[in-house]
Amino acid sequence: MKKKIFAVMMSLVLVFSLALTGCGSKEESSDQPAETSADSMKVGFIYVGPIGDGGWSYAHNEARLYLENELGVSTIYKESVPEGPEVEKIMRDMIDQGAKVIFATSFGYMDYVEKISKEYPDVKFLHCSGYKDGENMSNYFGRMYEPRYLSGVVAGMKTQTNKIGYVAAFEIPEVIRGINAFTLGVKSVNPEASVAVRWTHTWYDPVSEKAAAESLLDEGSDVIAQHQDTAGPQQAAQEKGAFSIGYNTDMKEMAPQAYLTAPVWNWGPYYVKQVKAAMDGTWKSENYWGGMEDEVVQLAPMTELVPSEAVQKVTELEGKIKDGSLKVFAGPIKDNEGNVVVKEGEVLTDEQLLSMDWLVEGVEGSIKK
Fold this sequence. Notes:
Pfam families: Bmp. Keywords: Signal. The structure is a single chain. This protein is α/β, with parallel strands linked by helices. It contains 11 helices and 16 strands. Helix 3 packs parallel to helix 4 (about 110-120) and helix 5 (about 145-160) packs across helix 6 (about 175-190). Mean pLDDT is about 90; it is low at about 1-35.
């Protein structure tokens, strides 16, 4: 009797084991587990400005739409979110709505993203333009200083007064690096030119940005560049009969009589790559800083207002940047107080670029410390 009972029990165990094995085989053979399918993947985006700004937030939002189209995932977004504690609530709300990946797209969100990422280890957080990371938190940015340099070449060959204005947001390494790269581009083709900087202490304020550009124009600048999110400086240049270098997106339509070109962002392919990795289980935290060779940063098409010799020069230099033979921050480089900050034969490291707190020779302005 015991043998029969034992035999029956063994039979039941065998049947149960086979059933489990069958279930396991079915799960393993699935190309895409249900929890990571496109239908169940929701991605959140947080913007510091309105998506209609025509600049920074607009570029990120265009990439969000590209992501939806490429992968078929659903997305949610919140625009005009201040760089403060409010962003914590926004992230929690997105997670409550089912977001499994969140892109926070402004520097001032960094500490808050780090805090929330530790509270939600199963959610992937990607922070733009910062430097902190964690097991489920990446930071990402692009080497915008590369097309900035090229846009400086355009400005240097276009100016007639040898005075170029630059409307800048905040005295942080990202902005300072851009001013310096632009000025190095200007000086490489026009040693007599200088770049005057006006700080607005805002990312998105059309009125103050335009006013800053107007003051630079009144002082003799005939080309205006910017590290701002609106087209205010472009419009000021057009109204004064001057020329302009945009930023973030192709701003030709905003000031067609003034616009020359712009360093622009192309976030879409990066967003697709990161979300796809999250879906298939291969996502890993990283510090990403792509350049022109990745096409995450580009120089927008130059308009007919750009001299033909400038177009030829930029085309030549762009190829050198992409193949690595031209390094924007290769010495010798002096700061605007006359000190040698990069010696002959040296090239700034990424760490030095990311902590830049000085202005190159040729910049008229200062940094509050």
